[in-house]
Specification:
By secondary structure, the protein is of the alpha/beta class. The protein folds into two domains: 176 residues, P-loop containing nucleotide triphosphate hydrolases (Rossmann fold, 3-Layer(aba) Sandwich); 89 residues, Conserved Hypothetical Protein Ylqf, Chain: A, domain 2 (Orthogonal Bundle). Helices cover 42% and strands 11% of the residues. Strands 1, 2, 3, 4, 5, 6 and 7 form a seven-stranded mixed β-sheet that branches. The chain binds guanosine-5'-diphosphate and magnesium ion.
Length: 310
């Protein structure tokens, strides 16, 4: 399924062009990424269009991510000269650090403006990022009110307003949608699990199965604790690190991971009349558990080898 995901190259091009157009209006770019998938939720083409413009990568939803891996990502991006910060936009955590980092990055520019008589000049920022990475939450949080931001639609050309914040910061009133570039099937699974790709373009059961495979490979203890199962016994130590097999019924017959999926569904009471597991109901439950952080703090991509098994 994930191989067939349409990642809308036309939209992506449009979004990148629009971002490029607006760049000249701002001093700095805030690039939101999902801290659980800092590789897949970023678009590598942004680097190309952003040029010398100061930029801060915001690893948002840090409350849901593995704190050690978030720290490793911040380090690794820092080593590549990219300023990255952890944030919990929905809890307004990390805002002070963001403002501080912005002031530091723009200090020279602001001092030069002040020397030319423009004191107290605002710091203007544009927020860009993949769908569901928290752009609107960040803008509203910084503004201290529900500001007039559009949905995740690229290519909406209109006049600009600036959203004031209580401080010196002004935000462009429309967050830029940066469609994620889906490089691999693994990336597609990660983006769907984290909600940046909508389930309606994929299959919920397959998404849940693929996500479970990643979770067991990366955080077996958390899965065992949450669902009261023994992953080692059921999977028989199967190597789960390779490509996810396509799901079809006859494959399931000899697939220990599928057996585990069914066992978990039944344990959670997702059972249909006649005793069969309600795969769809459990799939939704599992995905929601992951998205809401109920399984634990999880990062699906490691800083040192993001595209492969972490
Ligand atoms: N747990 C958690 N959820 C967040 C955070 N920031 C945003 N969200 C949630 O993520 C979802 C998407 O946020 P939104 O701002 O609409 O993302 P956008 O599509 O980039 O504008 C919403 O349900 C938010 O409440 C965060 O730091 N932690
Ligand atoms: Mg939004």
């Amino acid at each position: 399924m994930a191989n067939d995901i349409n990642w809308f190259p036309g939209h992506m091009r449009k979004a990148l062009n629009e971002t490029k157009d607006k760049l000249k209006l701002v001093d700095i770019v805030y690039e939101t990424a999902d801290a659980r998938i800092p590789f897949s939720s970023r678009n590598p083409e942004l680097d190309r269009i952003i040029g010398d413009k100061p930029r801060i990568v915001i690893l948002n939803k840090a409350d849901l991510a593995d704190p050690n891996k978030t720290a490793a990502w911040i380090n690794s991006l820092g080593n590549r000269g990219v300023c990255a910060l952890a944030m919990e936009a929905s809890h307004k955590k990390g805002f002070d650090r963001l403002t501080q980092a912005t002031e530091n990055m723009l200090r020279e520019k602001l001092e030069n403006a002040a020397a030319r008589g423009r004191t107290g000049r605002p710091m203007r920022a544009m927020v860009v990022g993949a769908p569901n990475t928290g752009k609107s939450t960040l803008i509203n949080g910084l503004a201290g009110k529900k500001a007039a931001v559009t949905g995740d639609r690229p290519g909406v050309t209109r006049d600009f307003k600036w959203i004031q914040t209580p401080g010196r910061l002004e935000l462009m009133d429309m967050p830029g949608v940066l469609w994620p570039k889906i490089a691999t099937r693994r990336s597609a699974i990660c983006l769907t699990a984290c909600g940046s790709i909508k389930e309606d373009v994929t299959d919920v059961v397959e998404t849940a199965y693929d996500t479970l495979k990643l979770l067991i490979a990366l955080y077996p203890d958390l899965i065992e604790q949450r669902y009261g199962i023994d992953t080692g016994t059921v999977t028989g130590g199967a190597d789960l690190s390779g490509e996810t097999p396509e799901i079809c019924d006859n494959q399931f017959a000899s697939d220990p991971l599928y057996d585990l999926f069914i066992l978990m569904a039944k344990k959670r009471g997702c059972v249909m009349s006649g005793g069969r597991a309600d795969e769809m109901r459990f799939a939704k439950l599992l995905i929601n558990d992951f998205r809401e952080g109920r399984i634990g703090r999880i990062t699906l991509e490691a800083a040192d080898k993001p595209e492969k098994e972490c």
